[in-house]
PiggyBac transposable element-derived protein domain-containing protein (Cymbomonas tetramitiformis), 230 residues
Amino acid sequence: MKPNKRMSMAFIVAAFGIPFAWEFYTGSRSNDYNEKKFNSAEEIAWGKTISRFLRLFRRAYGTSEGQNIFMDNLFTSIFLLYILRTQYKALATGTHRVNALLPELTWGAKFERGEYRWATAIHEGVSFLYLEYGDNKMVRFLSTLHGSPHANPGETKERWDSETRTYQDIFLPSIKLDYDAGMMWVDMVDMLESMGGAERKQKEPKAGSSACQKPRADNKVAKGAVCSVS
């Protein structure tokens, strides 16, 4: 989900750079067609955010099972990951909002880039991994797809350091590598969309300026000119 300059939001499910399902949201008071298709019982039980995610998930994947899903911090919650695992047999990984931290899993102090801390928990047979990773800023992950980092620790790669202005070897845990690879397709769709045509505001030129042309004999103004002619 990313807002654009027209104050609407696009919710996209994509894989390999191809969007499989999407919705546009322009506000709860709008007459948007998609907003009228809410499953009221599901929305009342789980809220609009989870309801929208599951609706897009079903539209993209139907009843197929075994999907690995990656999501941004708008959607990520223990409850949603639990629903995906138990009702749809899907595993998921997402970034976790800083204001939605679990108190018992918050270590507080920041740490150096490449360092991480983690904890695991099991609830009704569903395993969760919570991991905090020091990147350019603190990144927090929640996952049912990944287990203990000791089983699959990750890789060390060169990354640019803006403070020293040199490349440094930075450790990347497997959960970050998989998340970046999974979200790449949504980011690619967003990039391609931004390269397309967009509405642009144009200032109205003053009458008599070179940018403002006089009406032709047929009382029409040349294409592209915006004029105030008395």
About this structure: The chain is about 25% helix and 30% strand. The helical segments are 40-46, 48-61, 78-87, 174-195. The beta strands are 2-3, 9-15, 18-25, 68-71, 91-95, 116-123, 126-134, 138-143, 154-161, 166-173. The chain has a mean pLDDT of 74.
